[in-house]
UniProtKB/TrEMBL annotation:
Name of the featured protein: Methyltransferase
Organism: Davidia involucrata (Dove tree)
InterPro entries in the record: Put_SAM_MeTrfase, SAM-dependent_MTases_sf
Swiss-Prot/TrEMBL GO biological process terms: methylation
Keywords, in A-Z order: Glycoprotein, Membrane, Methyltransferase, Signal-anchor, Transferase, Transmembrane, Transmembrane helix
């Protein structure tokens, strides 16, 4: 009765409508008669350069620790031994930061019998399914593996992409030929991924007048106009404080259609409506549907919340590009005919503020997709005109939404009016048990069949059904995770000790060991041994995440890390979400759904050696060049031979390879993208 009163209240009430210059540490050439020397850094220099208070872990405490560097080259040609190269950055490159600090040691490096490099256990593969296994309708992968020669062509000839999208080219979203052949666009199929049969091997041009991006947090408020020279949103949404043109900048007042007076007030308004949301504690990872320029997600950082924001590449041109240029996570995606590329039951809250999605249509198929990804007991925040206006269309939509959510067993917790912004929000809660499902008089929407895998999400059509709530105490989704930040380092309760982890230990021990390994590598090597000025790094992608240990080790930096779980790898993405991080499924044989020049750093741990068994490396390197900003970085850890292939391709694209190091057939590479583009 209380819920019906809230719905009646909504139907009857009405209200009004609505450092700029990067500082990179370069590597001095260590020349001595053609030999490279490795010099130990003395203890005093280590203490002076260590600017982060990461925990130092002894070798006997951490099984994954990598051995300290202590041996000089002992073989004239360096084969089968250590090999380190410190490449000086070309002085004539204006954009290169000048810094003469030497790389005198690397505390963590690949190779060595006791290095503790994680190796995937062949036996463990029997315990883990992959996204490719789970997604029956997965798109067929491209034929043809690399013969390794492409990566060895030092003088590989690159050309500029000749496409209508120009500097904003997203290959799988700008495939005009595939879109023209679609039989229907009714479910926004033209906004979905349609990848070219042959992955592009061209380089995307820079916008005229491009400048190195403004650093976070200033970038949340303004970006360079010439980096994303689109003004349509400013013209259409400027009065709602989305974005404005201010001289050579595009400025973002922090508003949105439903929060003209600022996102922080709106964020607090939501928590006041439902105290149980508890931003930054109970609620850590949310999904923002139809995010616009992602100001909502951008200001949720102030509440220690990660938002996976998404919007289609549509007439609201460059909205996701604006978000990423500002340093806010977002992807280009649409709620259309396919499932979103996320596991089931992983988001603590799903948010929609005038997101223009017809939730009530076609049996609620799109709302049922949100139900799939929403954690049991999680909240759906719907801020839209049907909640608080009395126009005929709004009243009808509210009636249909009320009936649909009741049938889905979602509880209408509250309807709250925001007097400052003259809007309202309805907040629903997904059930945490099957009691309501079992008591329904009609099986509508229907429960999914037992063989329907809720985690299958790679090119899988939408299913208009609901999966039962897990009730077994050892099953994922039967309990809420620990409050943040405790959940970051705590193995999920549903990781069973009898289950073998990715690296061969029991799953909980594997999880803990992986975390200690990456804390060691990040603190001892990445933060002070690769010549990277982390003040210039904001948007990071881990191209082959496992447990999310790399992202977890970056927690105290002012960065965010998008964890990518490859579709042919063990499906560990639910673990990543459980610990309060976020990520996405992807196949690197295809282009990623992001705009060009949107990431400051890509991290690839043993990605390429696995990937080249299925597809060629050259298109993947072209994709990396597309994604990374000029001045952005790439860190690669892989087999030594593969490192050599990657290095040669990077050099052919005029990237500045700062460091390569290898030992016992394992290597690491650090490189920086320049502003070079082909002449044609």
């Amino acid at each position: 009765e209380e819920q019906k009163e809230l719905e009646t209240q909504a139907s009857e009430e009405s209200s009004v409508t609505q450092n700029q210059q990067a500082q990179e540490t370069t590597m001095n050439d260590q020349e001595s008669n053609g030999k490279q020397e490795v010099i130990q850094m003395n203890q005093q220099e280590e203490e002076e350069e260590q600017q982060h208070n990461e925990e130092t872990i002894s070798d006997d405490q951490v099984e994954h620790d990598e051995a300290p560097l202590h041996t000089n080259l002992s073989n004239e040609d360096g084969q089968e031994t250590q090999h380190i190269i410190n490449h000086g950055v070309k002085k004539e490159t204006k954009q290169t930061e000048e810094n003469t600090t030497e790389l005198n040691s690397i505390d963590s490096f690949p190779g060595g019998e006791n290095s503790g490099i994680p190796k995937e256990s062949k036996e463990s593969k029997k315990s883990w399914s992959t996204q490719a296994d789970q997604s029956e309708n997965q798109k067929e992968r491209r034929n043809g593996a690399s013969d390794g020669q492409d990566g060895r062509i030092y003088g590989y000839t690159w050309q500029m992409c000749n496409v209508t999208a120009g500097p904003d080219y997203i290959p799988c979203l700008d495939n005009d030929e595939a879109v023209r052949q679609l039989r229907s666009r009714r479910h926004h199929e033209h906004r979905e991924r349609h990848c070219p049969e042959d992955a592009p091997t061209c380089l995307v041009p820079l916008p005229e007048g491009y400048k190195r991006p403004i650093q976070w947090p200033q970038s949340r408020d303004k970006i360079w106009y010439h980096n994303v020279p689109n003004t349509k949103l400013a013209e259409v949404k400027g009065h709602q404080n989305w974005v404005k043109v201010t001289g050579e900048f595009l400025s973002f007042p922090g508003g949105g259609t439903q929060f003209i007076h600022g996102a922080l007030h709106y964020i607090d308004f939501i928590q006041e409506a439902v105290a149980g949301i508890a931003w930054g504690k109970h609620t850590r990872v949310i999904l923002d549907v139809g995010c616009g320029v992602a100001s909502f997600g951008g200001y949720l950082f102030d509440r220690d919340v990660l938002a996976m924001s998404f919007a289609p590449k549509d007439e609201h041109e460059a909205q996701v590009q604006f978000a990423l240029e500002r340093g806010i996570p977002a992807i280009s995606a649409v709620m259309g005919s396919q499932r979103l590329p996320f596991p089931s039951r992983v988001f603590d809250v799903v948010h929609c503020a005038r997101c223009r999605v017809p939730w009530h249509e076609e049996g609620g198929s799109l709302l049922l997709e949100l139900n799939r990804v929403l954690r049991p007991g999680g909240y759906f925040v719907w801020s839209a005109t049907p909640v608080y206006q009395k126009l005929e269309e709004d009243v009808e939509i509210w009636k249909e939404m009320s009936a649909l959510t009741r049938d889905m067993c979602w509880k209408l917790v509250t309807i709250k009016k925001d007097q400052l912004n003259s809007v309202g929000a309805a907040i629903y809660q997904k059930p945490a048990s099957n009691e309501c499902y079992d008591q329904r008089k009609q099986n509508r929407p229907p429960l999914c069949k037992s063989d329907d895998d809720p985690n299958a999400a790679w090119y899988v059509p939408l299913q208009s059904c609901m999966h039962r709530i897990p009730v077994d105490e050892v099953e994922r989704g039967s309990r809420w995770p620990e409050d943040w930040p405790g959940r970051l380092q705590t193995p999920p309760y549903w990781l069973n000790r009898s289950q073998m982890g990715i690296y061969g230990r029991s799953a909980p021990d594997d999880f803990a060991s992986d975390y200690e390994h990456w804390k060691r590598v990040v603190s001892k090597s990445y933060l002070r041994g690769l010549g990277i000025s982390w003040a210039n790094v904001r948007n990071i992608m881990d191209m082959r995440a496992v447990y999310g240990g790399f992202a977890a080790a970056m927690k105290d930096l002012k960065v965010w890390v998008l964890n990518v779980v490859n579709v042919d790898s063990p499906d560990t993405l639910p673990i990543i979400y459980e610990r309060g991080l976020f990520g996405i499924y992807h196949d690197w044989c295809e282009s990623f759904s992001t705009y060009p020049r949107t990431y400051d750093l890509l991290h690839a741990d043993h990605l390429f050696s696995r990937l080249k068994k299925r597809c060629k490396i050259v298109p993947v390197m072209a994709e990396i060049d597309r994604i990374v900003r000029p001045g952005g970085k790439l860190i690669v850890r892989d087999e030594s031979g593969t490192i050599g292939e990657v290095e040669n391709l990077l050099k052919s694209m005029h990237w500045e390879v700062h460091l390569t190091f290898s030992k016992n057939q394992e290597g690491i590479l650090s490189a920086q993208k320049s502003e070079w583009r082909p002449d044609s």
